[in-house]
Amino acid sequence: MREIRVIGDPVLRTPAEPVADFDRDLRRLIDEMFEAMYAAEGVGLAGPQIGISRRLFVYDCSGRKGHVVNPVLTVDDAAEILDEEGCLSVPGRQTGRPLYAPTARAAGVSVAGFDRLGRPVRLKARGLLARCFQHETDHLDGTLYVDRLAKETRRKILLQTP
Ligand code: NI
């Protein structure tokens, strides 16, 4: 089982490299990411979160499940929605469970990328799934949801991390 990296680990702050080879290793990696995500009861997981600095993520959110390799995010509806958001890589020191805070995200997005066989995929999402896609693509650029919080809220969250 792949270990989930926690805030403070430099890999979470490193912009990930594009995936170049759609080979068996990639397919195995995607399976391992699903395994790690489900074990941690997450709804999304990006490569850097298991120490793999590659541009891909998996998700199982709002009844939709899948993976996207080399995702490119487009905002379709820029209206800001404030809702509770957390991250497996930002756990509470005491609980080991994700810490949640109201985080502003665009209401609607599209993600274009590739599947595990290198076939193009394009997904449209609103609400929670749109939030998930924005959160996971952020991970690929070394950004964590806490970076998007108001200063005081961020401080409160960071005080509780390991
Ligand atoms: Ni996360």
What's the structural blueprint in terms of helices and strands?
Blueprint: H1 24-39, E1 44-46, E2 56-61, E3 64-85, E4 101-114, E5 120-126, H2 127-140, H3 151-158
Antiparallel strand pairs: 1-2, 2-3, 3-4, 4-5
Bound molecules: nickel (II) ion (NI).
Nickel (II) ion is lined by residues 87-89, 135, 139.
Give your account of this protein's structure.
The protein is an alpha+beta fold and about 160 residues long. It has a single domain, classed as Alpha-Beta Complex (Peptide Deformylase), CATH 3.90.45.10. It has three helices and five strands. Nickel (II) ion binds next to helix 2.
Q: Estimate the mean pLDDT confidence.
A: 97
Under the CATH scheme, which class? Alpha Beta
Summing up helix and strand content along with how strands pair, one would put the structural category as alpha+beta
What is the second-level CATH architecture?
Alpha-Beta Complex
Radius of gyration, whole Å: 15 Å
The largest sheet, given as strand count, sense and whether it forms a barrel, is: 5 strands, antiparallel
Provide a count of the helices: 3
